[in-house]
Amino acid sequence: MSQQAHPTRLSAAFRRVDPPVAIAFGCIVAMLLLGSLYSRSFLSPEYLLQQLKVASFLGVIATGMMIVILLGQIDLSVPWVVAVGGMMSTAATGWGPVGQTMAIPFGIACGVVLGLVNGVGVAYLRIPSMIITLAVNAVAQGLMVVHTGGFSPQDSSSPAMRTLATGDLLLGLPNALLVWAAVGAGAIFLLNRTTFGRAVYGIGNRERAAYLSGIDTQRTVLIAFALAGGLSAFGGVLLAGYASKAAQGMGEAYLLPAIAAVVLGGASILGGRGSYLGTIAGVILITLLQSILSVVQMPEAGRQIIYGVVIIAMLLLYGREGRAR
Amino acid sequence: MSDWRYKLSENRATLLAFVFFIVMFGIYSSNHPAGFNANVVQTAANKGVLLALVAMAQTFVVVTAGIDLSVGMVFVLANCLASWIVVGSPATAALGVIGVLACGLICGAINGMIVIYGRLQPIVTTIASGAVFFGIALLLRPVPGGDVYGPLADALTGRLFGAIPASLVALLAVIVVVWIPYRRSAIGRAAYAVGSSEPAAFMSGVPVQGAKFCAYLLSGLIASVAGLFLTFVTYSGEASSANGGSYTLFSIAAVVLGGVSLFGGSGSAIGAVFGALMFRTIGDLLFVFNLDPLWQPLFQGVVLLAAVCVGSARLFQVRNRLELFG
After folding, report:
1. Per-residue pLDDT tens for A179-207?
2. pLDDT tens digits for A8-18?
3. Count of domains in chain B?
4. Which of residues 201-220 of A touch B (CB under 8 A)?
5. How confident is residue B123, by pLDDT bands cut at 50, 70 and 90?
6. Which of A27, A30, A20, A16 is nearest to A278 (CA)?
7. Is there a contact between A265 and A59 (Cβ–Cβ < 8 Å)?
8. Chain B within 8 Å of A26 (Cβ-Cβ)?
9. Neighbouring residues of B108: CB distance < 8 A, sequence distance ≥ 6
10. Most exposed residue of A214, B28, B197, B284, measured as fewest CB within 10 angstroms of its CB?
11. Mean pLDDT of all residues in B202-217
């Protein structure tokens, strides 16, 4: 790389940052500054690291959601796939030493299977993703209700899961954050540097055109949904490790934030447009918003209202569709 | 194609939903331990009508190729509001009913304004507005409680002439007063045109924005009717997010079972109503066969999964793979 090329590359990098991503990061900074007026501790490293740790659960789940949204589809099966991940991994822990070592892969594998069902429905049976993922969510819920007998399971998570979710092995950074960083790096590589990633963006823009240009669109959609299922379940495994057990409604609180995070990060819900950097910004933004509202002891009602209003306001700021004609 | 044949093929999905519902309800009531009597029908009707109304609300928006994920929350909000204001004397209760319906209209108008003038996608908009509506419901009823004007509630959830469930009559009235005139009006036709192809509708001079706005408005209105009805059934208001969420999801399931296309432009609210009644009957079938209630969610899920897979049978008719990507 010659010296002269360097400044142009830098400015190109700046130009490549979407305005939505820049605005989202700007909002994060503004929110932290506003919070610091309320309490100094908002800018302390401990608070920020704690927030990033909490954000990483949402981050892992939102990664899967983002891949699906880039296709122009949506995954509404997140709530119970997360619960399946948590419950199956804790159940495996109860099966003795072999189960304990296999707990994490087993939980993820269950999510992948559910994701594959979603993918077959969308890619091969051409069922609208909103419907098939809803149905799979219902089936997953049914399976878990039968499995647990309607109560929260008594099994607790394995030591490995707990270490992954709550420990800090490296430089005082929370392990959960490192996990999210690894997942995120994988997603960035997958979306930007592989034919699979190109195919995802292509299908999101126009599936017909992607098919005609020789992409096996059905296989790509299948893999994307399997990935999303696996990542949702992985989020569930981490959450079970964090709380040291799984619970019935553990995934309910993650569906809407995951969609909101992806969309706030500038990805189009119609597919084909969006960057992982934006999703990172969206995830941190949502987590900070929730945290600040709980720190100032806003009652649940006010939290819901502000949460909804902020999402709509931010989207009105930069998420609008162009005029159709 | 002769006229009746065209009408038959146009309404095939609605008819199918109707037939399936009759068959399932037949199985349900003939196996019910108490037999087929007015009480069984009344209980089933009161439960079914709630979902039928919410599904009808969903239909208005789905026909325009949008989706309203806030119907369940409008339903809960109307329930909480009604438990405050539909009380006291007949006059205040009547005013209260008008207030609740106005609240539904406002919710629908907010959704419509944001989608049309804000140019945001309906999915995201209604998710976010749903959170706001739920927040307001929670402000109204932090804990479950409240009351409702008794005589009206008893009249609407009881029986007419000792046999016909009043709730079914009310549902019929809503269909006759709201859906049928809407379907036959210019704005209703415009909604179908917008759902089929928005650019084509625009080019033909169809009032695209008016049709969409009207759809969201009516969706909010009917969802608030459902919320009102919930108050009559339960005699109280409760801001339950689980309730709101499940009614939203079930309304989508009911709409699909009722033959309304999620891509817009086809189907009818009457189909969605039968879809909703069918969905409720499926859930209840397990009870009459004395199976463990634990299996109910799984059974409901598997039936839903099977039903949506049946819809893909049309793939066998596809001659050109490109048709798949429509």
Report:
1. 999 999 999 999 999 999 999 999 999 88
2. 665 665 666 67
3. 1
4. 207-208, 211-212, 217
5. confident
6. A20
7. no
8. no
9. B74, B216, B217, B218, B219, B220, B221, B223
10. A214
11. 93
The residue with tokens 């299948």 is: A222
Cβ within 8 Å of residue B60, ≥6 positions away:
B182, B191, B215, B216, B218, B219, B222, B269
Interface check for A127 against chain B (CB to CB < 8 A): the answer is yes
Fold of A20-32+45-318: ABC transporter involved in vitamin B12 uptake, BtuC (1.10.3470)
Which of A76, A142, A256 is opposite residue B300, by nearest beta carbon? A142
Interchain CB distance below 8 Å, A324 and B198: yes
Per the listing, tokens 């940052």 go with: A17
Tell me whether residues A259 and B121 touch, CB distance under 8 A. Answer: no
Query: Which residues, at least 6 apart from B65, have a Cβ–Cβ distance to it below 8 Å?
Result: B194, B195, B198, B263, B264, B265
3-state secondary structure of A194: coil
Measured from the Cβ of residue A154, the count of other Cβ atoms closer than 10 Å reads: 10
- Asked whether residue B16 is assigned to any structural domain, the reply reads yes
Cα(A202)–Cα(B3) distance, integer angstroms:
44
Show the tokens assigned to B176. Answer: 């006759």
From the list A134, A142, A301, which residue is nearest B297 (CB)?
A: A142
Using one digit for the tens of pLDDT, what is the confidence trace for A211-228?
Answer: 899 889 999 999 999 999
B87: CATH: 1.10.3470
Report the C-alpha gap between A245 and A94 in whole angstroms. 12
Quote the Cα angle for B127-B133-B135, to 5°: 105
Distance from CA of A232 to the nearest CA of B (A): 19
Decide if A135 touches B, using CB distance below 8 A. Answer: yes
Averaged pLDDT for residues A45-49: 87
Determine, yes or no, domain membership for B202: yes
In order of A312, B110, B120, B215, the CA distances from A323 in angstroms are 18, 20, 11, 21
How many CA within 13 A on the CB side of residue A98?
1
The gap from C-alpha A172 to its chain's centroid, in whole angstroms, comes to 24
**pLDDT score of A325:** 47
Distance CA B53, CA B45 (A): 12
Query: What residues of chain A lie within 8 A of the CB of B142, using their CB?
Result: 299, 301
Q: How confident is the model at residue A2 (pLDDT cuts 50, 70, 90)?
A: very low
Sketch the domain layout of chain A as residue ranges. 20-32+45-318
B304: nearest CA in chain A? A135
Residue B122 contacts residue A319 (beta carbons within 8 Å): no
The 10s digit of each residue's pLDDT in B50-60 is: 999 999 999 99
What φ, ψ does residue B196 adopt, rounded to 5°? -70, -50
CA–CA distance, A12 with A193 (Å, rounded to integer): 18
Check B127 against A150: CB less than 8 A apart: no
